């Protein structure tokens, strides 16, 4: 999963992009990059690490121009090396691009590009999108590309590239610097665009970037379409290949997006609140009893508050999160990871001791994190520990940009429901039902990780390639 920001018509685009990326740092903490454009030249800097560590004032000052693209990366394809950090650019024709999502037919695209004499140099799947787009432009003419050429090139992307992706590109169109944004035909991955009072435009994975930069949202990026943005001018939109039905990613709403982000179906906070209310009603139907509701920070807070209101129980913050502890799954061995996990989350014993506690979490994937959380909770001597999850069991891998592994690593796919409480170290487990989630969301979404219905078909060899690519970076955590 990743996040992008594109800006055009702003003063000091490099500095503005650095600020915007900090608003979506949650979408990727492995690497980041910024590229700007000035007089037809790209100025690019990218590296491993978070935004504030990679972009010093000295580096930002080198990123000249009033237009540019920024990106934060969490690799779901590739090994997480500097060479795979985004944005990417091609000199012929001159295009800078970043994206969020996953391409599922990479082997097929690799073979096709080789027939054109083009060899991929990274494991980042924005590169083939960029090269297909560039080839689409070159098919029309070698230079001096027009609006019609861009429409043709994006159409080539939609025709050849399968998967889920939102993209933003920067290039010259009709002799003008132009921000180009497009989104896969099903609209699986999110994306929005907006402008400020001075006529500058922005496109981003989440609207929280707009809030940070004083930009007002205009609309979501239309699926299967391309949007061309130029300073002081109206947006130009060409619908090319929308799918019959939209399928935005449900996991963005459950976990990935910030709660203050605004998506097609509303504020993420409100969606999580509604899911928490439904979970509370389904939990009550089981006849269970509890004394206090405690969220697993940070994502679960909204749903836990809603659940507590439905049940008439007190809501308490029972864990203090150390925001400077680093990421536990990259630690070298199980004992170190366990120690790091204790450093990352520390319980307040008085919240739990002698009480029947409902721990509210957003999702369960492998089950290792929730087991460690249960162990931390048990150490505070509660009377009972109930786990309530405001999403259904994850039983299928995601091939569209959320880091969910192969089915044999998904604990809910391996174990029967009655075996999960013992596996997690809790007294009961309540997942939101698929029916409850669907009725709450009230619109079709991509929820393949829960129901196995993939809107973009993924062939068996493509699944194997994606899973094989992910496994080398896996640790026991």
Compile the SSE list and pairings.
Blueprint: E1 2-8, H1 13-23, E2 31-38, E3 41-48, H2 51-54, H3 57-62, E4 67-73, E5 88-90, E6 95-103, H4 106-115, H5 126-140, H6 147-160, E7 163-173, E8 176-183, E9 192-195, E10 201-204, H7 208-213, E11 216-220, E12 225-229, E13 236-239, H8 250-256, E14 262-263, E15 266-267, H9 268-285, E16 292-295, H10 301-311, E17 319-321, H11 334-344, E18 345-347, H12 349-352, E19 356-361, H13 368-378, E20 384-389, H14 411-414, H15 420-424, E21 428-431, H16 434-441, H17 448-451, H18 460-470
Helix pairs in contact: 5-6, 9-10, 9-16
What does this molecule look like?
The protein has 477 residues and is of the alpha+beta class. The chain folds into two domains: 2-246, 4-Layer Sandwich (Glutamine Phosphoribosylpyrophosphate, subunit 1, domain 1); 263-473, Rossmann fold. Helix content is 34%, strand content 24%. The protein contains 18 helices and 21 strands. The chain has helices at 13-23, 51-54, 57-62, 106-115, 126-140, 147-160, 208-213, 250-256, 268-285, 301-311, 334-344, 349-352, 368-378, 411-414, 420-424, 434-441, 448-451, 460-470, and strands at 2-8, 31-38, 41-48, 67-73, 88-90, 95-103, 163-173, 176-183, 192-195, 201-204, 216-220, 225-229, 236-239, 262-263, 266-267, 292-295, 319-321, 345-347, 356-361, 384-389, 428-431. The strands form five sheets. Strands 3-2-4-1-10-9-11 form a seven-stranded antiparallel β-sheet. It has a six-stranded antiparallel β-sheet with strand order 5-6-7-8-12-13, with helices on one face. The two termini are 18 Å apart.
